[in-house]
Amino acid sequence: MTSAANSAPLIEKHTIGYVPPQDRHGKVRDLFTLWFGGNIAPLPIVTGALGVQLFHLNLVWGIVAILVGHLVGGVLMALHSAQGPQMGIPQMIQSRAQFGSLGALLVVVIAGVMYIGFFASNIVLAGKSLHGVVETVPVSVGIVIGALGSGIIGIIGYRFIHVLNRIGTWVLGIGIVVGFGYIFSHVQSDDFLTRGGFNLAGWLATVSLAALWQIAFAPYVSDYSRYLPADVKVSSTFWTTYLGSALGSSLSFIFGAVAVLAIPAGMDTMDAVKLATGTLGPLMLVLFLLSVISHNALNLYGAVLSIITLVQTFAYRWIPTAKSRAVLSLLVLAACCVVAVFASADFIGHFVDMVLVLLVLLVVLVPWTAINLIDFYVIHKGDYDIDSIFKIDGGIYGRYNPQALIAYAVGIVVQIPFMNTPLYVGPVSAHINGADLSWLVGLAITSPLYWWLASRDSAYRRRQVSAKLAAGV
Fold first, then answer.
1. Cα–Cα distances in angstroms (integers) from residue 131 to residues 125, 136, 245, 462, in the given order
2. 18 C-beta neighbours (distance < 10 Å), count
3. Highest averaged pLDDT of the listed ranges 26-35, 245-254, 268-277
4. SS (H, E, C) the chain
5. Cα distance between residue 428 and residue 420, in whole Å
6. Distances 394 to 3, 99, 101, 306, 420 between C-alpha atoms, Å
7. How confident is the model at residue 3 (pLDDT cuts 50, 70, 90)?
8. What is the mean pLDDT of the chain?
9. Where are the transmembrane segments (predicted)?
10. Residue 52 near residue 61, CB atoms below 8 Å
11. Span 2-349: which CATH code?
12. pLDDT for 347
């Protein structure tokens, strides 16, 4: 494993293809630093602050909601991560084994849109952070600098991303702990503990935001574990990912809530962070600037892999290379810069809109998560025919898997009465003061339904996969 790691090229040569054993490298503990360091960033800080800003919770109930959401959502996210070493392929490509080669496209498109949205939001935060550190640098210039930094990291790829987050875990971890200490010892508001209160709708909405943060990683989390050796224990991959992501993101969410409550109400979150941390403010902004550039490379990387997956579905003879990934990265980067510059004037308003849109995306991501995990861990137990996954007709998995598509459609429909989104408020949600329980209902219904449907058809598919594996095909 050590020799493989040492011989691994700095610039990643693989895109969506299978990673052969000789190219596997790294250690499972790298997953902790990747997801811990990657989640100490401005965007989760701004998101966490919404629990007290938008949903009017007080500090205690806000923290409880944040922890519940991350601890629950992190389980699903980490279960996806554990698939990487066994499969050796990106998550979105692997979804073809559940939905079929064409049936998986809807989720691929949704994932791509989501990551582009996150990337655009993060480069605005990078621009604002740079402007806060050096006021002579306009926000628009900061946006471009932040995007280029993330682009370089994303183009270099997997190994460099891991290296930066190993460093970031120590630097950012120490930084945020010191920041907490300063804020708690220099509270500038009279209602730090009394502002807001408990309301069921706001509490559940904050839980949903935290769970969404974790589930949003699900479509690409195994992309960062697929280079690990295949004999890595599933439990090791799960726990290092789970602890890193749940701990890092919870700290950032809580930091955002604490910062906005520590100063008088009405200030932008990142401005609140700068004011609440006093003399540490400029240093915190520098750390967050470096963090958002590094973390945002994951969003760009995931968006580009989703685009490659989409194109390769139809151009199945195309073998995407590192050059293809670089070109697509630059195109996405340029488009996002244009959008971000226009959106930066009213970032909080646009960000809240984006969060609400992502709550809608949660409705379609949850059934996918349930289907993927049930298929991997219960139906096929990790045994898949990799060659079929890359065939235009889906090989033994076909172009469409009716069992998965039926369960997916039902999983979306059953959530509708429990939804609370800008587009629609379901009758059940309205009856319980706007609380959104849709994602819980989606998980509870889709999981057993897909298991029942797929298990009736899985005997043939399992025999086919087992035969191919035994023959070494």
1. 10, 7, 29, 56
2. 16
3. 245-254
4. CHHHHHHCCCCCCCCCCCCCHHHCCCCCCHHHHHHHHCCCCHHHHHHHHHHHHCCCECHHHHHHHHHHHHHHHHHHHHHHHCCHHHHCCCHHHHCHHHHCCCCCHHHHHHHHHHHHHHHHHHHHHHHHHHHHHCCCCCHHHHHHHHHHHHHHHHHHCHHHHHHHHHHHHHHHHHHHHHHHHHHHHCCCCCCCCCCCECCHHHHHHHHHHHHHHHHCCCCCHHHHCCCCCCCCCHHHHHHHHHHHHHHHHHHHHHHHHHHHHCCCCCCCHHHHHHHHCHHHHHHHHHHHHHHHHHHHHHHHHHHHHHHHHHHHHHCCCCCCCHHHHHHHHHHHHHHHHHHHHHHHHHHHHHHHHHHHHHHHHHHHHHHHHHHHHHHHHHHCCCCCCHHHHCCCCCHHHCCCCHHHHHHHHHHHHCCHHHCECCCCECHHHHHCCCCCCHHHHHHHHHHHHHHHHHHCCHHHHHHHHHHHHHHCC
5. 9
6. 35, 9, 5, 18, 37
7. very low
8. 83
9. 32-52, 59-79, 99-125, 137-161, 167-185, 197-221, 241-263, 326-345, 351-371, 405-425, 437-454
10. no
11. 1.10.4160.10
12. 57
pLDDT at 23: 77
pLDDT, residue 142, reads 85
The full set of domain ranges for the chain reads 2-349
**Mean pLDDT for the stretch of residues 189-205:** 88
Q: Are 367 and 407 contacting, i.e. CB atoms less than 8 angstroms apart?
A: yes
β-strand partners of 57: 197
Judge contact between 405 and 99, C-beta under 8 A. Answer: yes
- Residue labelled with tokens 């500038």: 188
Note the pLDDT of residue 279: 84
Contact assessment for residue 292 and residue 308, using Cβ atoms and an 8 Å cutoff: no
Return the residue matching tokens 């429990």: 418
pLDDT at 364: 84
Q: What is the pLDDT of residue 2?
A: 44
Single-letter amino acid, residue 237: T
